[in-house]
Every structure is written in C-alpha cells, then in structure tokens.
Amino acid sequence: MPHPEEASIQDLFRFTLITLGALLCLALPMAAVADPEPVGPAKASGGVTPEMLLSAEDQLDLWVQNNRTYTATRYSPDTQINRQTVGQLELLWQYPIRPNPFGFETSAIAFDDKMFITTSGSELVRLDPFTGEPIWIWKKGSKRSQNRGPAVLGNKLYMGTSDAHLVCLDADTGLLLWERIVADNRAGGSITGAPLIVEDKVIVGVAGAEFGVRGFIDAYDAHTGKRIWRFWTVPQPGQPGSETWSGDSAVHGGGTAWLTGTYDPELRLLYWATGNPSPDYDGEARKGDNLFTNSIVALNPDNGKLVWYFQNTPHDLFDWSGVSEPILIDPVIDGQPTKAIVQANRNGYVYLLDRTNGRFISATPYTRVDWANRDPSGKPVIKPELAKAKVRHVFPGTVGGTNWPPKAFSPRTQMLYIPVIERGATYTPEPAPYRRGQLYMGGYAEYDPEPATGSITAMKIPSGEIAWKFDTHGPNWGGLLATGGGLVFGGSFDGQLNALNDETGEVLWAFQTGTGVYAPPTTFRIGGRQVIGLASGFGLMGNESSGLPPRPKQGLYYLFGLPTK
Predict the structure, then answer these.
(1) 56 in a domain, yes or no?
(2) DSSP H stretches of helix in 335-380
(3) Which of 158, 245, 260, 397 is the most exposed place for a label (fewest CB within 10 A)?
(4) Averaged pLDDT score across all residues of the chain
C-alpha cells in the first residue's frame, strides 16, 4: 500500500493499481474557501511568541507544535497523570466530525486556554477545551483529504490543504488573513503534514510522489505569505545530486516531504525527511541512487541551502517513503554526549546520526528485515539476488515496519517508542509512462496472505536493545506520546487507547474509542489540569471478510483528565 500521502485503499493490506486509482482523489480540484462559521463566543489573547516555541519543552500548559517541541520527541515532563493516578482518568468530552476514508489524524494545538484541531475534510476548528464545544469552523470544502494539524505564531494559525494551498487564519475569529498556492494540485500536489514555524518563517513540504510530483520544501514569510526560499528534494539538472538520476527521470522523481520536520536552534539547522522516488516500483526508469529521496536533509533555515544529507534507502524499489520525523536527542555514546538524530525508518531500521554533520552512527532493525547489506559508511546495499530479480519479496512490506504515525522518545528512560507493523510483500514492476495528474507507480505490490501483526516496541538508545514489546493485536497505526509520569500513551487499530508503563510495557489504563486510531495522543494543561487528547476514526477500515474493523460512522476527538476534587 502506498503511504498515507498517496492513496486510500479498500483493503489496507492487499491492493492493486486498479484499486488505488479508484480511491485516490488528492488531485481533484476543491471547492471554494468558505467563511468561518461562528458557533460561540471568542476571546482575544497574546498568542504564541518565538520564545515560547523555543522553550515549549518545559511549558506544561502548551502544545504549540505538531510534535510538541522542535525536538519532536513527543515527550511531556508533566507528572500530574502518572502510574499511580492514570487509572482514574475519565472522559471529559468528545467532539464528532464527519466520516472520511482518509481517517482522522490531527494533533491539537493548545495555548491560552484555546484549542485547535484539523479534520480530514480540510477544516480547522477552534474548540472550547473546557467543554468541547466548537467556537468557529473554517473549511475548504474538501470531503476527502488528509490533515495532520496546524501551526501557530502570535495569534495566527497556519494550515496546509489537500489542494496544496497554505492558509493563515486569525486564531480568535477564524478569518482568513492570506492564502498561497504552494504546488499544482491538478498535477497531484498536496499538503498533508503540519507546517513548522522557525523564527518568522512558515516551512512546509509538498506531497504527491505517487503522481510523479517532484518534491520540495518551502519557507514563507509568516506575516505576508511571501515565499522566501525553496529546496528541491530532487535536484534539477546540473545541480549536485542530479547525476544520481538517469536521463530526465528526475523531472518527475518524487521525493516529496509530506510530514513535518524538526529544528535545532543552537546549530541553526532545519532537518526534514523525504519520501520515495517515482515511479515507486520501476527502478529501471530511474537508474542510480536517486538523491535526495528517502533521505534526511539538513538545511540552512535562512536560505534553504543544503548543509548535509544522509540517504536511508538509495534507489528505493519498495515505496519505503522514509518521512518519519527526525527526532533530536543527546545520548551519551562512547562516554561522550552526542548531538544526534534518531529516526525509525519505514525500511525496518532505526537510524542514529550525528546531527551536526550527518555522520552515520548506527542502524538497528526494529522489525523483520531481509533486504539489505550495509557498507562501512552505513549505506544500505540491496542484496544482489533481490537487485537482479524481476519479482521481489521482502520484509518489511510497502507500508513499512512503521508508517507516518509519530514515534516518541523519553529522556527518562532513554527509550524510543515505535508503532510497528509486521508484514511482508511481493513487488512486481510494470513500466508505465508519466501522465500528468495520474498515478505513476510503475508496478504493484501484494501483501503476504498471513494477517499483519503489530506492536508498540520500546528500543533502548543508543544500544538498540529491544526493552519490551506490547502486542496491539493487529498492525499498529497509532502514534505515541511519552510523559514524565512514567507513561506511554498510544492508540491501536482495534480502537483501544492504552496507557503503558514506559519501562515495562504493562497496561495501566485503557479506553475503547469505538473506532480505529490513526493519530497520536497529545497532552497539555487546561485550567491547571493535565489532559490527554486523541483523534479517533480510522477511515481505511475493511469489512467482515478482511477481518478488519468496519469503517467508522464518524470520527471523534476525545479529551481525558483526572477527576476534580
């Protein structure tokens, strides 16, 4: 299955190009922008300053970035909800949204006792965090899209849309302040990840590699919407890296950057992970390593210039779009504190890199991996028998050993927590020409007949030792949250939200949402009370014959907290 940027499918784990073509709709034009719908009173506030973004790690009442902080650890030091109190968690309210085949994937933004979520219909909603009542709703009009959340600076909200627009709204009123076209939607371009705010810039990547969109990362002035710079993730002819593409294959080379990046303000480096090359499965159409696809790139935030890169999967033949967030950590390695990046990649490895220069430190499998050898520089090399084969069977399969849902890292335990999917797939390349706005896959993949399994897997960093695994009774598409209370929160495909002991994986609390979970939990404080928020509503459900839960009738956003005295 293509990654969530690329396709919706009837059966999540067995598909053909015909099925993909029938369900994909990201390239369709969208309805006109609607005015916000006021549904309650609004109050003004000072908003979020750049200093607040820099210090968000220790501000318990805030969740002001998609992954909470620039480090993307999705760790909160809050201890109000802990191993002793978590069993008392109760549902405070729930907010319903209309059903959507792409699921409900948002991470909430919360500040000044205000709360904002996005829906899979390109809606941005301001909620009253005390009651769950909507205050205003701004919508684009799309019925089928993906959106993983907004960003905030000052009293302005920023959101990408599935027709590849970047919009800026007033946080108090929901009024549209400006709107910019980022990519050509009719050619397949879209925006599915949350923007990242760096100083006075809004930085966003484009999606659409399954249509042959050439990837890029853009920076826009947060006040005016003027584009400041663009970094092409697939180099243009004559640029460094273009020699890794045969002929003119780079023109429609993919490498889209469809999730959110991270930022080190001390080093002043922006880190972004890129996706698979296009066409997905036909490597003969694009001979070479295909830079900078399936890579982590470090950019100068002032001008977008490349500082360093590391390619996780050269010449990808398996649609392992390696866009998982580069998490910034500082482990002790060989007795020395090290400024590092850790990333659980779809290709089955957890990578550890020096974030100052991209130096390879280690790559450790977190799931079954059987496709590569590795040279001394850390570069994976596809096994010769696979490189020569016409039809290839490998682990992990196309959705990867993990997919877009965020991982979490706890500085308490020095563990990385990974939502894992276990299933192999068989790949058959079929050359096909590029046609604007149409699928450009170059073949198809079929999953193994055995049911997929999954887990929350805890890996010790930097050793790579697996500390524990929690069986999620099916492929795990739920993102994760770690807290100072000694907990890991994560939803699962069967609709369960679990709170686990972060050292042992023991279940300490659980709640059945009624719909499959495809989004990560968040935590912040409202009126001094720590709360846990979660979007539930997995659109890519199956049917009775597939053994997967049915499609939900609606999505729900849940907010949980401890009882008041």
Answers:
(1) yes
(2) none
(3) 245
(4) 89
The candidate with the shortest Cα–Cα distance to 146, out of 186, 119, 185, 115, is 119
What range defines the domain where residue 115 resides?
33-136+404-419+478-565
Whether pLDDT at 33 is above 80 = no
CA torsion angle 418 423 424 426 (round to 10): -120
Q: Flag whether 295 is in a domain.
A: no
Which segments of 345-412 does DSSP mark as H helices, in order?
384-388
Closest CA to 341 of 56, 74, 71, 54: 71
Distance CA 140, CA 161 (A): 8
DSSP 333: E
Backbone angles phi, psi at 153, to 5 degrees: -150, 130
- Cα-based distances in Å from 91 to 95, 163, 284: 11, 35, 53
pTM for this model (two decimals): 0.91
Residue 304: alpha-carbon gap to chain centroid: 21
User: What pLDDT band is residue 192 in, cutting at 50, 70 and 90?
Assistant: very high
Within a domain: 460: no
Active-site residue set: 319
Q: Which of 315, 207, 321, 196 is nearest to 260 (CA)?
A: 196
Q: Which residues lie closer than 8 Å to 318 by C-beta, 6 or more apart?
A: 281, 347, 371, 392, 394, 397, 398, 425, 427, 445
Question: Could you tell me the two tokens for 170?
Answer: 């007033």
Separation between Cα atoms, residue 3 and residue 347, nearest integer Å: 13
Token output for 341: 């990046």
Number of domains in the chain: 1
Q: DSSP string spanning 175-190?
A: -EEEEEE-S-GGGT-B
In this structure, is residue 427 part of a structural domain? no
Do 43 and 247 touch, CB atoms closer than 8 A? Answer: no
Token pair listed for 42: 């609004």
Q: What b/e readout covers 232-248, taking b as 16+ CB neighbours within 10 angstroms? A: bbbbeeeeebbebbeee
CB atoms within 10 A of CB 486: 22
